[in-house]
Amino acid sequence: MSEPGPPLPAHKRPYDDTPVHTADLPPLPIRDRNIPAEAWIEAPLELLASGDDIGKPRISYKRRIGSWLLWRAGPARKANSRYVAIDADDLTKVYFFRLFPDGTGEGIGPRGVTHTRFRTWKEELNESP
Q1: pTM for this entry
Q2: How many CA atoms lie within 13 A of 126 on its CB side?
């Protein structure tokens, strides 16, 4: 991959379809491009299908939260979208947070707690090994 370019608004970031392994997914948010789920060599089927029921948007990598890899299918705000968290050390551990167009959301975290706020869902990911 090339050196990062200047930060771009999320909707203007091009997709970089270069194949990437789990170990090469960056820890911090990428501000100049998107890594699509289909470029992730080890991508589990749950991730690749995570947008199937919401219009099949392109799924993009967002960042690491502890050992979790965070991906999103669909837009970020007040949208029909889904976040997917996958444990980088055990790709069978997958959790979802669904965002609805009215701004509400729902997801279950690694401890089995149901969250209605994306922030608390992410906090649980950060606190879970």
Answers
A1: 0.92
A2: 9
Buried b (16+ CB within 10 A) or exposed e, 35-57: bbbebbeebbeebbebbeebeeb
pLDDT in tens, 25-77: 999 998 999 999 999 999 999 999 999 999 999 999 999 999 999 999 998 87
| Integer Cα distance of 83 and 109 in angstroms | 12
How far is 73 from 50, CA to CA, in rounded Å? Answer: 7
Neighbours of 69 (CB within 10 A): 23
Cβ(66)–Cβ(125) under 8 Å? Answer: yes
Asked if residue 124 lies in contact with residue 76, where contact means CB atoms within 8 angstroms, the answer is no
* Residue-by-residue DSSP string for 77-121: SSSSEEEEEEETTEEEEEEEEEE-TTS-EEEE-TTS-EESSHHHH
